[in-house]
Amino acid sequence: MSGHSHWATTKRDKATEDAKKSMAFTKVSRLLTVAAKQGGGDPDSNPSLRLAIEKAKEARMPKENIQKAIDKGLGRLDSGSYEEITYEGFGPEGVAFMVKVLTDNRNRTASEMRNIFTRYDGSLGGVGSTAYIFSPDPKNPSFYAEILNPKTKDRLEQMLSEFDDNDDVQEVFYNFKLVNN
């Protein structure tokens, strides 16, 4: 027996799970708010709201929280203003990225995105610098870069992890495939 408290381990695990759940709820809540603001509060006539509600249910978000986020988007509750921004840039070995963000502070988010790209030897591009690669469907880029170098694979995986850890980031699109040697 190591002498450690079983409760300490349980508390630490629960804190980790709660933090992940909170981050997921924050992302989905912002998505719901923007969808309701742009297309109204009826999911039958607003497909983006319907999709956001499905994502909220997948994240096991309570109905009260879903309704509260929709009400914020409709202006029934006082809330900050979120805007959707797309950042484009290049990572290691010229890999193209397109990052969709929902933010209430565009300056802070631009700084964070620039920092992530710079940290991994990439650069934040201008509007349209990578969009042509992802048109018309960002999930199916027109070409893929095949990454063979193990160091580059690790850096790209770390970069994607940082994007996922950022509360403002909603989706990340990229044009690379990791190939095993």
From TrEMBL:
GO molecular function list:
DNA binding
Q: Where is this region: Disordered?
A: 1-21
This chain belongs to which protein, by name? Transcriptional regulatory protein
Keyword DNA-binding applies: yes
Family membership: Belongs to the TACO1 family.
Q: Does the keyword Transcription regulation apply?
A: yes
The top of its lineage is:
Bacteria, Katanobacteria
Note the InterPro entries from the entry.
Integrase-like_N, TACO1_YebC-like_2nd/3rd_dom, TACO1_YebC_N, Transcrip_reg_TACO1-like, Transcrip_reg_TACO1-like_dom3, YebC-like
Origin: domain of life:
Bacteria
Report the residue ranges that make up the TACO1/YebC-like second and third domain in this protein.
82-135
Q: Which organism is it from?
A: candidate division WWE3 bacterium RBG_16_37_10
User: Keywords on this record?
Assistant: Cytoplasm, DNA-binding, Transcription, Transcription regulation
Query: One cellular component GO annotation, for this chain's record?
Result: cytosol
**Bias category Basic and acidic residues: which stretches?**
10-21
- What are the TACO1/YebC-like N-terminal domain coordinates in residue numbering? 5-75
